[in-house]
Amino acid sequence: MSDYAMYHALGEGAPGSGDPQRKEEANAFRPPIAASPAGYHQSGSPAYSHTPNQYLGAPSQNTTPAQQQGYFPPQPPSPYHSEQDVNNLTAQMGAVGLGVEAAGQPRQNKKKNRHAYHNLETPGGTSQAFNGMPQSQVGTPTQFLNQNSPQVGGAQWAQPQITPAMSQFPAAAGHSFAPVSPASGMQHAARPGEASSGAFTAQSTQGRVDPEHIPSIPKSRDGPAKYYLEHVYPTMEHHIPPPAVVPFVAYDQGNSSPKFARLTLNNIPSSTDALNALALPLGLVLQPLAPLQEGEQAIPVLDFGEQGPPRCRRCRAYINPFMQFKSGGNKFVCNMCTFPNDVASEYFAPTDPSGVRVDRLQRPELTLGTVDFVVPKEYWSKPPVPLRWLFLIDVTAEAVNRGYLDGFCEGVINALYGGENDESQDAESTKGRLPPGAKVGIVTYDKELHFYNLSSSLDAAQMLVMPDIEDPFVPLSDGLFVDPKESKAVITSLLTQLPNMYSEFKNPEPALLSALNAAVTALTATGGKIVCSLSTLPTWGPGRLFLRDDGNMHNTDAEKKLLTTEHPGYRKVAQKMVESGVGIDFFMAAPSGGYLDIATIGHVSATTGGEVFYYPNFHSPRDTLKLSKEIKHTVTRETGYQALMKVRCSNGLQVSAYHGNFFHNTFGADLEFGVIDADKAIGVMFSYDGKLDPKLDAHFQSALLYTTGSGERRVRCTNIVASVSDGAAESMKFVDQDAVVNIIAKEAAARITEKSLKEIRGALTEKTVDILAGYRKNFTGNNPPGQLVLPENLKEFSMYILGLVKSRAFKGGKEPTDRRVHDMRMIKSMGTLELSLYLYPRIISIHNLDEKDGFANENGHLRMPDSVRASFANVEEGGAYIVDNGQVTLLWLHAQVSPNLLEDLFGAGQSSLKGLDAFQSALPVLDTHLNAQVRNILQYLESSRGSKALTLQLARQGLDGAEYEFARLLFEDRNNEAQSYVDWLVHVHRHIQLEVRGRRRADTPDTIFG
Ligand SMILES: [Zn+2]
């Protein structure tokens, strides 16, 4: 395994590398549509022939850990993990009477079924109902989700059904569940159910509390991550998606992949009252352009010509797998509004005797949950063209002096033409990274605006200065937007020279609003995307801003104002952009740590569907790698523009709120996006306008009308289905923790302009208590009253909410408003993966890696070490840790870290902490085992995250400022002016008990969460 060929092979095959050969192989992952999805569990299934379940038999498991070359001798118990701490915990937990576990009770009991992927099919049940499609006139097709679902209620609910997925789930094993030879899917299905409470109970043994006993987010991620290395996620069979942080290959069976849509409840109570008993939000997190993973089939693009895709005449829902064909194929019944539509003659196909259209398997729109429809002219507001990118570059003194202009220009070159590392690959890199037809323009600004003619017929770019910043116009029509391939020489030479050119002028003040107005004028005819850099507060010309945050307004009413903007100029330009199909990403740096008024400027991004990349203490060259990677990411990720979104749902439900970064004119209108990209998510809340029929399923469809980067007008259709039940107990089993946390976080972020931070934190606590007390009151009758009982699927929920309370957006204490408002808007647009990481970091210890960690296993999948809980109690003396929250990645090094480790990691001679270069942002490429392991691990982390690039920042104990960030991210400890995880659980538990006894008085009226 220490063979470097393996390492390199791994590197090339990593997700996103685009190696065509790997892709072909990976496509075999997906069985042909014709295969019954139920075949997933059969050993002979085509899906399985390529993914032998060898995980459990992997020789790498349980072999001797390779500690002979460990970097430090076996440690005595960590000094941070002292008896005293444990006793203290015990006292705290004891005080609220946490249930006492019988001594010697095997730990596995609690770990079993930690992810109860309830398959609605009872073991041995018919697979007929689960072939993924509601088939008209077969049985009671629309009930397929409920058909075989055991009716479980009351005490019975504590015995979850064992499903094939659960029983072979490595997470559940955790300790010793490792059959010698892998069983077939059917064998697993036949396994007898093992006793489990179906709920987590906090336990203590003989009066002592092991902090390791409280629910662990790292464990909740590591087990599923291993499982999904070797298994696909079939979207109709399992009704709780994998944890959002876990990479997985989804197999679309008609229900959209969780990457595109996650419901908070995959089984919905039939009435408001039943939902209220749960206190859980009914919401949907949509990420319509989410990236796919290697091994997943591309979203099909379907063209119905002039007619456009078939739609329901009454509610305008798009054709989807859940619409039923009747009358021999002449009618289709809408799954949203039940209206029987006529099938247009062009779309007619007869149904077979079982009521299924004979051509169903050839029609992706009838078999897949996520499809793209090409749409005809009536869906256009202007003729779609390939996306125009306008780089709007700050050339003021601060940008020049601090190396920010240099870094930004380099980043743009890298984004358009690839870095030096990519040159060797093939002809692709010289063809450029933008889709064919896309065009690029460059405008720079300080207190004037400078336009550039980039025509390929010129030897060098021509600059035109626009001094009129009150009423700027665009001084050239041809040559502003050019083909980046044709004008490569002109563009690269201009970008290379800009830093030098403006080092002579050094205007201190940028006229940002004028630049934005000019940019939107240049893009009005076509729409497009602006990528704008800014390095200082724009204090020149119209829309000049001033220092609003003097640092003295925390915990005052004035603070709320700092988190929003009433500036008419910025509001107006944002609206104009949306109307023109234009969106903007800002790259904002504050090299001197100064105030930038992100509340005002970032408003333009938030309204137009864009994003702010913020470098609060930009340091060149340390941060130029991150800057460059993030510019490249923004330019190369899937981006649509001029977009409208509509979310439809079944009769009985209605949309009650939207949360995200978009423009919403009036409630009921479509959401408008100047631009939307792969990383952006929207939260949608639903309420009841009637009672749902438990015999029917609830359907949701989001339709995003957008123009692709290559200039095609399309609708991205995302369909998702949930079963409906009378009681709330059934729903509790199908809770998606990541979706619940995401919706609550988005709702909280949306209130930050109305409520004080203190009120929001209070409301988050109340909401946590409401949800857990609701569960305690309704579903856990048999547990002793003093026991803290957590729902199986919401075990880590409290910790995630604590992470939210400690986040920069909501934390107590001083925090620059720029950072607060930036993080708050980010939360509003974050998908479930990115938010989960943000609320609880991944921590990997690299001083005690197994020698096989960080290399491919025999199936070619990277073997990741288990992650570490975010508490200093878990930090070992002499240790080295990677801490990654999806935004920053720290390499924390203990003061007594082994010199050998440093040399293995950083190179010969780099044996002292002090001697390391504090500003390095990546590891050198070395021939040592450890260096390769860590680079592979970082590559893995980089492949599963949101929009922010992964670069390393050193946090050496006692030496670097980044150590404060390390301490801040240890969310299980007492920090960020909030409790430790244990104290928080104790607090929540106390309030649950008061609530259960009817003696709770809410400190804050819960007016924040609907
Ligand atoms: Zn309809």
Automatic annotation (TrEMBL):
Domain Sec23/Sec24 beta-sandwich as annotated: residue spans: 640-724
Biased composition (Polar residues): 42-70, 198-207
Major location category of this protein: membrane
Chain spans, region Disordered: 1-84, 182-221
Protein's cellular compartments: Cytoplasmic vesicle, COPII-coated vesicle membrane; Endoplasmic reticulum membrane; Golgi apparatus membrane
Domain Sec23/Sec24 trunk residue range list: 384-634
Any Pfam family matching the protein: Sec23_trunk
Residues of the Zinc finger Sec23/Sec24-type domain: 309-347
Keyword Protein transport: yes
GO biological process: COPII-coated vesicle cargo loading; intracellular protein transport
Gene Ontology cellular-component annotations: COPII vesicle coat; endoplasmic reticulum exit site; endoplasmic reticulum membrane; Golgi membrane
InterPro entries: ADF-H/Gelsolin-like_dom_sf, Beta-sandwich_Sec23_24, Gelsolin-like_dom, Gelsolin-like_dom_sf, Sec23/24_helical_dom, Sec23/24_helical_dom_sf, Sec23/24_trunk_dom, SEC23_SEC24_subfamily
Biased composition regions of type Basic and acidic residues, renumbered to the chain: 209-221
GO molecular-function terms, A-Z: SNARE binding; zinc ion binding
Membrane-protein topology: Peripheral membrane protein
Domain (Gelsolin-like) ranges: 864-936
Keywords: Cytoplasmic vesicle, ER-Golgi transport, Protein transport, Transport
Cited SUPFAM superfamilies: beta-sandwich domain of Sec23/24, C-terminal, gelsolin-like domain of Sec23/24, Helical domain of Sec23/24, vWA-like, Zn-finger domain of Sec23/24
Domain Sec23/Sec24 helical: start-end pairs: 736-835
PANTHER family, sorted: SEC24-RELATED PROTEIN, SECRETORY 24CD, ISOFORM C
Similarity comment text for this entry: Belongs to the SEC23/SEC24 family. SEC24 subfamily.
Annotated function: Component of the coat protein complex II (COPII) which promotes the formation of transport vesicles from the endoplasmic reticulum (ER). The coat has two main functions, the physical deformation of the endoplasmic reticulum membrane into vesicles and the selection of cargo molecules.
Protein's recorded name: Sec23/Sec24 family protein-like protein
Organism: Massariosphaeria phaeospora
Lineage start: Eukaryota, Fungi, Dikarya, Ascomycota, Pezizomycotina
